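Weekend entry, working from home. Most of the wet-lab plans are on hold until the incubator is repaired, so I used the time to fold the two sequences that have been sitting in the queue since the last round of cloning. Logging both here for the record. First:
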Amino acid sequence: MHFILFLVFVAGILQSNAQDLHFSQYFNAPILVNPANTGFNPDNDYRIGANYRNQWGAVGTPFKTMSVWGDAQLFTGKFENGWMGVGGALYRDAAGAGNLINTSAYASVAYHQMLGYSSLLSVGFTGGFISKRIDIAKLSFDNQWNGQFFDITIPSNEPFAFSQTAYADLQAGINYAYFASDKFYINAGLSAQHINRPKESFFDPLVSDASIDMRYTAFLNASVKIGESWIVNPNVYMSKMNTASELVLGVNANRDLSGDGSRQMILGLYMRNGDAVIPVFGFQLNDTRFTFNYDATVSTLKAANNTRGAYELSIIKTGVVSSALSRGVRCPSVKF
């Protein structure tokens, strides 16, 4: 019975959310959140990042999500008070007993324009290619229940026509940042994914239209320097896709351990509404940041997984390749 309930739960999740990857550390996967984040990295010329998430291992086959991404600034001295950002990302998601594999590749571009001395407006666009495949032979369906167990020799009568599907995907976004001082800034963004409404299905087209709904994502964050040793970053993230929605809110705090920002400790606490409490811990050494979080389930699923929801790792490296004199305009930033 518990296994059947779990299948029903996973089927609901797959129906509403499986089209898109997500991380609890959304702030460490900026291109995934909004293409306007591409090249929005005031103190550096480039970023390279990697993310790994392992979810629901306590109640069945774990869902594993991986990504590598990078972005860079271009033409910082060519535009009047503006610059371009270019980036790319690879994502892979392995989900469930049917070994549903999602492999995605994206390229993004953004333009950033200073508005006066204290505001920045950014617009971005992402184009991607997504490939999904599933091992149908590993799945069992209600028609195959013989009263005692799932018998794979019984026909499922499901209208599968393909075990693999692929499509192009388009996303656009906009960001606005306001820099009140060298100790405070606030940033908000909005993006829309699947704006071309691609079709995704393993069924015969006559059975299912399979057009993916648009996904809307919004975020609001700030950076506040407190004294000489702390920088606090409150964050709110919201995403909606058809009837499925997600709300994550919380705060990160960076503690300067060296006096010059070269060594920092990272502490944070987040909550995904109706799902999990998420403590965060990390460390930054010079231009490389390591962050770990653990999703402790607080929803009704905690009875099945003993609150063990997911864990997640991220690594981000930043760098500068041009001299300070040749880098052109830079928006203000909050830093040690």
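Second, folded right after the first finished:
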Amino acid sequence: MQVRLKKYLTIRRSTLLCLTAALCLTVTACRQGNGSGSGVRVELQGKAQGTYYTIIYYDSAGRDLQPSIDSLLHAFDLTASLWESQSLIRRVNDNNDSVVNELFAQLLRYSTEMNHYTDGCFDCTVGKLVNAWGFGFSKREEVNDRMIDSLLAFTGKQPTLVTKSDGSLVIRKPHPETAIDFNAIAQGYATDMVSRYLEQQGITNFLVDIGGEVYARGCKPDSSSWSVGIERPSETKYSEREVATGIALRDAAIVTSGSYRKYYEENGARYSHTIDPQTGRPVRHTLLSVTVVDSSAWRADALATAFMVMGLERSLEFIKKHPEDSGVQQVCFIYNEASENKMYMTEAFKKYLDF
């Protein structure tokens, strides 16, 4: 597919680099008049959840909202980040705490909802498996069939929430060894959270990108949509980035999940960071990346992960079974066939193409 290369925001998963027209190496808030009367352009760059964020918005007052946004994201990390040693999720996983806040509870509700909806392909209880395969915060272990079978005993059955008489929420894990991992939904949820905050401040034209999970609201000063690029899957994680295609986005979220950047190789085999909750092993199929457009970033995040677990054929079957679901219908797959990378887009996705 031939594409016209523009100054796209290139999306991808967690620790990878964001390519924008004016990428700053430090945390800055850049302001410039746009001459359109729609407000002052503000661009924020920073770090959260072990990755970067980029936020662009147009504000009539030219406000610097970075301190408030950083505070929101820090509070989020203290609840849901596995990379924070004292976070609530770490305490829950270590059985040092069972009382959770509303943010944690909502992440669990959404995760459980998507677990049921995707027939277990999305599962937040894979924490032990993710760590064992070396994609978590702990050192990779020597994985064998016996270990996988033992860890699968702690995976699959979803934790539940109980409301106590004093109104507090208590989590009940199916097994003390069950480890929760919100990584496949957390950045999407944080993107939605920051987007809601901007709307509460009266800002209606913005783009929020946290680790590749993007939400675009409104439009640019010239009334055009926000331009977002989908990365072409690379041969190795060190390869130079290229844009496979671009889309025009407004009032929607877009998330890409892929297997071509986050992996490790051992004894000639490549192990993807996407773990199949049903086998306990990294996925092994021809699907390289999945891009989902939905009304919320958390849901696009979860669906993209579930499709990566399913693989192309099962994903297409799932799409056929859910014609009423706009997020399920707006998907772009890039896969390998006969040593050649190919792209398949649903009809609903094609309306976003930006050529």
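Plan for Monday: verify the second prediction. Residues 149 and 164 are 35 Å apart (CA to CA).
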